[in-house]
Design a protein that fits this description.
alpha/beta; Rossmann fold; 8-stranded mixed β-sheet; 6-stranded parallel β-sheet; 16 helices; 16 strands; elongated; binds ligand SAJ
Length: 494
């Protein structure tokens, strides 16, 4: 261990004063959990007093949570630590000079999803503020998801320039990636294992001392800062890869005329010592702010760390191929819509298409990088007339989100399930048929939430992702109640 840094840390003693830069979904729960530790005296939550987020300062200092949606336990905990005088939100970054440790929980979105270059601007601003005020022996921890090599590279350089000190000698520097999911922020921080990686042994040890007290079920997993960055980006890259494998297999099953879900059950049945088959679910696409970008952070990391990568020249990585498969799925939904409408004798041009779901995730209002937008744009480009419904998403720039499901289904030539909201699991086939006013409306199930038979019996032209066994079903016209349905078309290949 580096003696100088070790001596500075020992002179400080146990961590008692902590700061968190970035009062968002990661920073707020993290800050109040630190504040609730008996060994911590005070936690400052640093928030710029900006027009868009400055309101959070007063809210937090009143013990209120500025986060949308249900976060069990969060607001009571904010109230508790604020009234105990152990947490305060402030725009005064100079208070960092009093602290033993400061963490940065600042989002790193892509400037433009097309060029996949992360926007490190806000993070660099936070690093400059931290660097400007930290004192010898302090610990700086990055919690944001970052390209491998950033902590020991760009972050270290910015901090050293702003502080005039040396990382690993005058101050400790580490990466401890967040693993929180909306709706379970506190629980995730307390119960997930925590990856903690320093730029050197002293930094790793100091960062482990910071996080250990806020874990309940979770345990600390120490490693180097770069290994921690790779762990975080790779754990999402692997999930994206698993989803892509399910999507690719679903496309194969459609082409071979079989039911993906039968195959999935079969594959999943293979269990036993050392056997793993984590087969996930195919769907209308992969959205969100994690899986859509973390693969590219990992890919950039390999380039930045300029290690000699031994890999077939010019070949795309399986990780990027997985991204391409997942990004294809909204177009697959469009292709299924085209063929279902054609089987119903309709062209896409001028067709009323009801898009069920704008959120990227079922039963969520989060629409970041939603696959529905890709599908919607394809419909508009083809001259169709899409109507979007969502029961959680209030609004979205440039798209009219309807919240009355019956109204959204009126006159539909096609209905496409893009998001797995529970509400769509209880769609009544007869009601949807009646609202559509069509003899053979199309229904395209992108999330395996409806019963194909119930809709086929009502005269729908059904298509579902992975449902090769039903995607060329005979189209029937239901007789009045009590009579058998009669087949009016021979099965056609979509
Ligand atoms: N999806 C599929 N098939 C699946 C699972 C998901 O198509 O089998 C789609 C979803 O519809 C969605 C997208 O993938 O559009 C992402 O879904 P997600 O469940 O991965 O949710 P995220 O993006 O919020 O991922 C987060 C990640 N958490 C963090 O980064 C801290 C991820 O690491 C978690 O594994 C994931 O939540 C989770 O499991 O909830």
């Amino acid at each position: 261990m580096n003696d100088r840094l070790q001596k500075l840390i020992e002179a400080r003693g146990p961590i008692r004063k902590v700061g968190v830069i970035g009062m968002g979904y990661v920073g707020i729960p993290s800050a109040v959990l630190f504040a609730d530790c008996p060994t911590i005296d005070i936690v400052y939550g640093f928030q710029r007093d900006s027009p868009s987020s400055g309101h959070k300062i007063a809210m937090l200092n009143r013990g209120e949570s500025p986060l949308k949606g249900e976060e069990p336990g969060l607001e009571p905990l904010i109230k508790k630590v604020v009234s105990a005088g152990k947490f305060r939100c402030t725009p005064d970054y100079s208070l960092i000079s009093e602290l033993d440790a400061v963490t940065l929980a600042i989002q790193t979105p892509f400037k433009d999803p097309k060029d996949l270059v992360p926007d490190f601007g806000p993070l660099v601003e936070g690093l400059n503020m931290a660097g400007r005020y930290i004192r010898p022996g302090a610990l700086v921890v990055l919690e944001s998801t970052i390209t491998p090599g950033t902590t020991a590279g760009m972050a270290r350089e910015v901090l050293e320039k702003a502080s005039g000190m040396k990382a690993g000698e005058d101050f400790a520097l580490a990466h401890a990636p967040e693993r929180v999911m909306v709706g379970r922020l506190l629980r995730n921080i307390q119960e997930h294992d925590r990856i903690v990686g320093g730029i050197d042994a002293a930094s790793t040890k100091r960062a482990c001392d910071l996080y250990a007290p806020i874990l309940t079920k979770g345990r600390i997993i120490p490693m180097t800062a770069t290994a921690a960055e790779v762990t975080k980006t790779a754990e999402n890259t692997f999930r994206d890869l698993q989803i892509a494998a399910a999507n690719e297999l679903a496309l194969y099953c459609e082409a071979m005329g079989i039911n993906f879900y039968s195959v999935r059950t079969g594959i999943d049945s293979l269990k036993g010592e050392g056997i793993t088959r984590a087969i996930l679910y195919p769907g209308a696409g992969v959205g969100g702010h994690c899986l859509t970008k973390d693969t590219y952070h990992l890919e950039r990391g390999v380039r930045i760390l300029n290690g000699r990568l031994d890999y077939p020249e010019g070949e795309k990585s399986i990780f990027v191929l997985a991204r391409n498969v997942n990004d294809f799925m909204p177009r697959h939904m469009y292709n299924l819509t085209l063929s279902a409408l054609a089987r119903a004798g309709r062209s896409i041009k001028g067709a009323n298409v009801t898009v069920l779901g704008w959120a990227f995730l079922g039963n969520s209002d989060d629409a970041r990088n939603t696959p529905s937008e890709i599908y919607y744009d394809l419909l508009v480009k083809a001259g169709a007339s899409p109507t979007v419904h969502d029961c959680y998403v209030d609004r979205y720039p440039g798209v009219d989100i309807r919240h009355d499901l019956d109204a959204a289904l009126l006159g539909a030539d096609a209905v496409a399930v893009m998001t797995g909201h529970d509400r769509y699991r209880s769609l009544d086939a007869a009601r949807v048929k009646e609202l559509s006013g069509r003899a053979h409306p199309a229904i395209i199930d992108g999330r395996n939430v409806i019963d194909p038979e119930a809709f086929i019996r009502q005269g729908f032209v059904y298509s579902g992702i992975g449902r090769g066994d039903r995607n060329s079903h005979p189209i029937v016209t239901p007789e009045p109640e009590g009579h058998a349905t009669q087949e009016v078309h021979t099965a056609q290949h979509a």
